UniProtKB/TrEMBL annotation:
InterPro entries: DSBA-like_thioredoxin_dom, GST_Kappa/NadH, Thioredoxin-like_sf. The lineage of its organism: Eukaryota, Metazoa, Ecdysozoa, Nematoda, Chromadorea. This is DSBA oxidoreductase domain containing protein. One of its GO terms (cellular component) is peroxisome. Transmembrane segments: none annotated. GO terms for molecular function: glutathione peroxidase activity; glutathione transferase activity. Residues 5-96 form the DSBA-like thioredoxin domain. It comes from the Eukaryota. GO terms for biological process: glutathione metabolic process. It holds the Pfam family DSBA.
Length: 110
């Protein structure tokens, strides 16, 4: 269900132009994702442990030089490599020795 919820959040922001800042926004996304008992997850958002984790992760990202999202850190042979943006996935694949095939390759003239 995580993949479905992620897609619903993406659609809400980038396709529908709707916010995701209010509790009701989260309720709509989780309902569309068929997540059972959405309150179980939404109630955790304001918890002190969630806030602590958010601040810790934000500090860790800033400490690596993050200035936007997605900020991706790849550990390769004991070295950290930072990448900004989803348009860098091909570079990450090259770094780790994997072939990268763009999701739209079927539409290109090969």
């Amino acid at each position: 269900k995580l993949e479905i919820a992620s897609r619903e959040f993406w659609k809400r922001i980038w396709s529908d132009g709707e916010p995701i800042s209010r509790r009701s926004d989260f309720e709509k996304v989780l309902a569309a994702s068929e997540i059972e008992n959405p309150s179980k997850y939404i109630d955790r958002i304001d918890s002190s442990s969630a806030m602590t984790l958010l601040f810790q992760n934000t500090k860790a990202a800033l400490d690596t030089g993050a200035f936007g999202a997605p900020w991706i850190i790849v550990n390769k042979d004991g070295e950290e490599h930072a990448f900004f943006g989803s348009d860098r996935l091909h570079l990450i694949a090259q770094l780790i020795g994997e072939k990268f095939t763009d999701g739209l390759v079927q539409y290109s003239k090969q």
